[in-house]
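Quick one before lunch.
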Amino acid sequence: MIWKEILIRYGELSTKGRNKMDFIRRLRENIRYAFADLGHLHIRTERDRMFIAIQDEAQMDVLLAGLPKIFGIQSFSPVAACEKDMDAMKQLALTIMDTFKDQQLTFKVEVKRTDKTFPLDSHSIQREIGGHVLPQYQNLSVKVKHPDVELRVEVRHDSTYMMAQVIPGAGGMPVGSNGKSLLMLSGGIDSPVAGYLMMKRGVRLEAIHFFSPPYTSQNSLEKVKVLANELTKFGASIRLHVIPFTEIQVLIKDRVPSNVSMTTTRRMMLKVADKVREEINALAIVTGESLGQVASQTLESLTAINAVTNTPILRPLISNDKLEIIDIAEKIGTYETSIQPFEDCCTIFTPASPKTKPKLEKVEHYESFSDFDELIERAVKNREVYIFPKKEQPKDKFADLL
Ligand code: ATP
Ligand code: MG
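Model of the magnesium ion complex:
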């Protein structure tokens, strides 16, 4: 096999000492995690790049397919290797250029000679390889500035290395390099996209879902599990906390006027989420809210909802149009799952005409007649936790009685 390793160029990287070390260490761990099925990978890190050693073609295929999903990688290139011998080098250059033979392309050879004992200097190597490759391909013409293909040749101490392709990475920062947040994950289109965007900024996620059986079906919960699992493709495991929310919703329906019940529902969700966030040591809460999308997402509503906590609420989609969100959902593969038609707990309790400009004092006044705190404590305590991608069934609460 001609491929010897994959060179990885780091994405956006704060250049300062410790942060940089952390970025590189995280990226290496995340790559190991994502490709755990391949066994132990040999990864060598340098200040500005990283190399994964390749054992065989099958491993190469898996890496090429998976690396574009990993945050923190700006681009990567398969690297071929051969003996430090001009004939072998010419032959390898031909083999690599063969993969471009059906396209009309501009081209140049760029040589770096790290091993100064090699008998030819960079310029001569460049001329010899270029002179060997060009006559064999009618489709190639030389262009020195910004060619379509730059065949990079590096004569190092152990071997000669070559690469011709720069494959774009996902950009962003390695998941985990920017702390942990709790994602409020509904079964809709928006929240998985919000989670993805925060992962891209290096945030590790746990997720929380509010579930109101029997008003919401088991299918709707399964859908949320599939979405949580899909998000793990981007390089980290996710714990999903499922909150039994029926009791709280029923109390809201009974005690709070229907035109502000949506606001109260959101406030209670946020209170529960904030307690779970504290227990799991997460620093912020992430939602899929987008300004003006629905009644609960006007500035007035967001203000009334937000008033229950000082915890930072991250809303990466706040300025996105629905179509832009759908675009990302399709790209990351969550759209098809999100549009499955299972009711989530809010659609069923949604009042006919929710207030778009709820007044905080009024909402607080209506809530003051009921003891929500006790119910919130209970909901947090009775939550079920699932881990993805490794599916772990929660302990069957009735098993002890059988
Ligand atoms: P989505 O498509 O993500 O469901 P949406 O447009 O349907 O969003 P809403 O239902 O108003 O919007 O919800 C706004 C946000 O509140 C969601 O993006 C999500 O972060 C959170 N949320 C709503 N319902 C739930 C739920 N059942 N469990 C957890 N979070 C929820
Ligand atoms: Mg929703």
